[in-house]
Specification:
Length: 762
Amino acid sequence: MNTRNKKLLLTMITSTMLSCPVWAADTTGYDAATGQQVENTVSSTKMSAQEEAKPAAVNAVITSPNSQETAEAIKNAKSGLTGYETDEQLAAIASGQTPESVRSSAEQEQVQKITQAEEERKNQVAKSVISGNTGYEQGTVGTEESAQEQGLPGTSVSYVGNLGDVQIDNTVPQYPMAVVPTGQEGLLSYANSITDESLAPYTNKVATSVTISPVPDKAIESALLPRLAMRVGDAISPEYIRHDVNIIGSTGLFSTVTPTMTNVPEGVALNYTVQMNPIVNDVDIVGNESYKTDELKAMVPFVAGSPINSTLISKAVSDINAKYAKDGYLYSHVSNATLDDKGILHIGITECHLEDVTVRGNTKTKTRVVTREVRMKKGDVFNRAAASRSIERIYNTGYFEDINVRMLPGKKNPNDVIMEIDVVEAKTGQVSIGGGYSESNGFVALLGLSESNFRGTGDKVAINWEFGGETDSNKNYTFSYTHPWLNDHGDSIGFSIFDREYDYEDYDEDGDSVADYDRETKGFNVTYGRVRSEYVSDYVTLETKKTEYKDYNSGYNYRDWQDDTSLPSVYRNYLDNNFGRTNSMTWSHVFDNRDNVYDPTRGKRLSFTGTWAGHGLGGDFDYYKFTVENRLYYKVGSKHVIAVRLLGGIATGDMPYSDLFTLGGADTLRGFEDDEFRGDKMYAATVEYRYPIAKKIQGVIFTDAGAAWGGTENVPWYHDNEDLHASVGLGFRITTPIGPIRLDYGVGDEGGKFHFSFGGKF
């Protein structure tokens, strides 16, 4: 076998059976044996996976009547064998079956596989599932069969898709020819009607000539002949013929390609009779809302005044459909194409719209609380990314344990969808009860009430109250209320009133306790949140608070310093410099695209916060304070997460000790005491590796590092420590009915320390 045949064999054996949507009318072909016109319907199939190539019946080239190769080729041709049958096929032939019947069975089996794959694809489309971190199910919508016709003028144009990297051969001006990837010519329908039986009268006869006509420019024929399998001197082969017909048809220039053979004394004169496609002058696209017409039109290659190229149109359709799919428009696609008598190619696009949103399973939560989180409005083009983000937002409210979404066909238009959201409501109210006893205060009771979905409206309310004791002051309370949706943009408003008295402990730069005392903080604040975009929000907080030094417990007694004239002024003025009223305004700019605010696995939260205290706002202190924080989350595998937090801050002005940046404790620098390090400058970093242990239990391996220094001129017992402090440790995150619990053990410069806290992870 010569080199050319080897290449052809490789091409035919490695070719794959692929197909794509065909929303087109029938085409016609010709029976090679009878010369009669026959109907050849283009099937509307789409393969989801590659299939093995069917065995290729390849005849050797006849190069010389006296060559041994020719003799063997003629012998094989007469016997019906090609030399490329599989072991199974040869065994069947040896058992008495004819080679033709064996190959026919193989071809039928291949067709059956393709048909089966197509049915599976259709079923999958009808029951497609959108998978992801949210886990919602999608119902039957938007199949090709349900696409509505736009009533486009003209005759339907056949097209397929998934042709791969189609190239354009411009060697013949005004007649650009498509060059499809090797092995994909069989996607086209030109050779569908050519059977071994129709070619039987000519099979194994020698081709005395091979031509292509009629063509308007002989250069077309010259460009195509080198790509054909049949050459002068070859034995007529059905496989060669079908290959050539598809090669010629794959150029996209011809509506029909028919092998016409004429018996001559020396053999057979072979002509591939072609019919040129009609002329195209312009392209018109209708039905598109998601993209501008010019943007889509630029994806359709054509030369005005030249024959319409069906292969390039097929590639353009495939590209447009791929663009819709890539950008999340799952059910939007090219539904039809027609060419009118003026040469205008009309391409119709069917876009799937959101007809309605329904909610099921909510007994407490108002339906509007769910639907306001949906990132699409009724009538918008359905988009998978927007649907996925909607589920994330609904879950991030914290009102639901589970959320499932189904896409149902629209009632008004089956091409549109109804988004059905099934929810399982979570317990959003909490009650905390506690108490204590001391000889000085007697019995003290603690009561905490919180509701994050107040009356099913999404409002948040919380109150914590400590009462009883010898003084029966009924102080020590905090009350807060937040209304998350002031308007359709999602702006929020909230306020807090507080009067808290707790035991505090101050530490020097070495982490040693220097004072234990009671400190009272009381005041109120108001916060307004403004939504800028999907992931960006601004918050402005106005606050007034007053801190007071109450009872001395141990260590330094700051009150005793006030009247001690033997002490430097920094001691005598310690209380005045560090306790008093602070009036401030704080602005925060936040970018947050985390998939889950309670247990993030991907995304980031970047925030910038600036505080203006005093400087015209009144109060005892004047300072500016700026903080930057970046939280990053990377999913490793299915359930493992790497979380990173970076912090930095700087302040200037007259700041009280309690408002300095702090490091140390469960929230920043584990392995150290709470708020052990302070200063008007700070930086810190945390890296956590989170992994699942059991249901609602998560393990954590972490490392913390950071430093805080400066701004302690009014704190005589604290000396700046600019050293970098670091720790490593292990921890657990446990989800309980009363909220998440954090247990950590960190080892720092001063040894190990356990940390126990409530609240979610960073």
